[in-house]
Amino acid sequence: MAQLNTQLAGRHYISPLMNASGIHCGLDYMLDELTHSKAATYITKSATLQKRLGNPEPRYYNYKQNSLNSMGLPNEGIDYYLKYVNQDPQTAQRILSITPLTIEDIPLLSKKIDASGYDGLIEINLSCPNILGKPQIGYDFDQMAHYMKVIDQSFYPGSYGVKLPPYFDLVHFDMVAQILNQYPLAFVNSINSVGNALMIHEQQTVIFPKNGHGGLGGATIKPIALANVHAFYQRLNKNIDIIGTGGITNGRDVFEFILCGASMVQLGTVLAQKNLDIFEQIENELHAEMDKYDYKTISEFKGKLQYIQENDAISGASH
Length: 319
Ligand code: SIN
Description:
By secondary structure, this protein is α/β, with parallel strands linked by helices. 30% of the residues lie in helices and 18% in strands. It has a single domain, classed as Aldolase class I (TIM Barrel). It has helices spanning 28-35, 78-86, 105-116, 141-154, 170-180, 222-235, 251-259, 269-273, 278-292, and strands at residues 6-8, 11-13, 17-19, 60-63, 66-69, 95-98, 121-125, 160-164, 187-190, 194-198, 200-201, 204-205, 213-218, 241-245, 264-267. The chain has a 7-stranded parallel sheet with strand order 3-15-14-9-8-7-6. The protein is globular. The site of succinic acid has 13 residues, from loops.
């Protein structure tokens, strides 16, 4: 049987599957449930320095295999999540997500993490589209360069990664990679939701904040996420691993993210719409997909996307 084990930043995981930050990870009992599920690990809800209530409701909407959210980073504050992860016997395997709301928050967050003795990985969210008056850092390259400098001064090399928004222009992939390759990142997580999308029910917006604009997640964004993972796998230093996030609904999707270069993947909308059994289901489907191509390990096909040749017929295309 194929082996699903993988590595992220030199840490070993039994499979590439975990939740995306924000999904089933805001409170202790949710993290407990993830721990006891078939997920290889968990990431916490993105924590700010202080507890936040987030945006007014309604702020989340499911439509078919997609979702629209403008949660506004509701979270219990960094101290809460640090307490949780530090009592976890598997703390070195865990990922703590944090969002600096200002550049000044970066050293303050790092000081708290350092003082707590936390030795797991840290995901720094540079891409939340839902905070009124705060543009996504990942779309402002000067700001991003500035943030990365302060992040580098504040966190230990190899202890952190960044979560990026989706990019749509090849020049932007080059510019972002050029900034990130200057630093000792452990990983990049690509992509956050596609920001400021709109859904309409009857004649009305479906969420309240920002006149109905929010981050689009779910199956529709998978091709965008694959392209981002592929682009960063080609451009980033090889010691920066990639977490693929965006629109995964089944094991075939995970297979495609790994082909594009992902070492691990995160489940967002699908996990919000289904229950924790989805991890086992997707794991089984990934096994089947690997068997189909006779792959025994993840490393045999990670980053091995094949390019169709001019005038080639698409063989066996079914989707
Ligand atoms: C939110 O809390 O608004 C979602 C978090 C994110 O998209 O980064």
